[in-house]
């Protein structure tokens, strides 16, 4: 269990690991407030990938990785993860009938 120093490498290898075996892959986040450190771990019981950071800007990257994993879990491991951001928000229907009638 060695920490991966590059976020891009960690994210890419984590996605590959999930796509290879989606039923046994786990994703764990641990935050230690006293140290201000965030540790992410992805494992499938054979390979373990870890990433540690203390940078606040990495929280947005972690949120994006969460969304990618949620997309892969819902749509399947072969889903296109590039089209999951803005297009998904645009396809949601708007609710009508809310508010006061004029």
Keywords:
about 100 residues; alpha+beta; Signal recognition particle alu RNA binding heterodimer, srp9/1; 3 helices; extended; RNA-binding; cytoplasm
Could you describe the 3D structure shown?
The protein is built from 3 helices and 3 strands; from the N terminus they run H-E-E-E-H-H. The protein has 102 residues and is α+β, with helices and mostly antiparallel strands. The chain has a single domain, classed as 2-Layer Sandwich (Signal recognition particle alu RNA binding heterodimer, srp9/1). 10% of the residues are buried. Keywords: Cytoplasm, Ribonucleoprotein, RNA-binding, Signal recognition particle. One of its GO terms (molecular function) is 7S RNA binding. It is found in: Cytoplasm. It holds the Pfam family SRP9-21.
Q: What is the count of β-strands? A: 3
CATH architecture name? 2-Layer Sandwich
CATH fold type? Signal recognition particle alu RNA binding heterodimer, srp9/1
- Give the total of domains: 1
In spatial order, strands of the major sheet run 1-2-3
CATH superfamily, by name, is: Signal recognition particle alu RNA binding heterodimer, srp9/1
| Largest β sheet strand count, sense and barrel closure | 3 strands, antiparallel
Shape: extended
Q: State the low-pLDDT regions, or none.
A: none
The top level CATH class name? Alpha Beta
Average predicted confidence as pLDDT? 83
Oligomer: single chain
Order of helices and strands: HEEEHH
Helix content: 25-40%
Q: What gyration radius follows from the Cα positions, in whole Å?
A: 17 Å
Task: Compute the number of helices.
Answer: 3
Pfam family, one: SRP9-21
Keywords: Cytoplasm, Ribonucleoprotein, RNA-binding, Signal recognition particle
Protein name: Signal recognition particle 9 kDa protein
Domain SRP9: 4-66
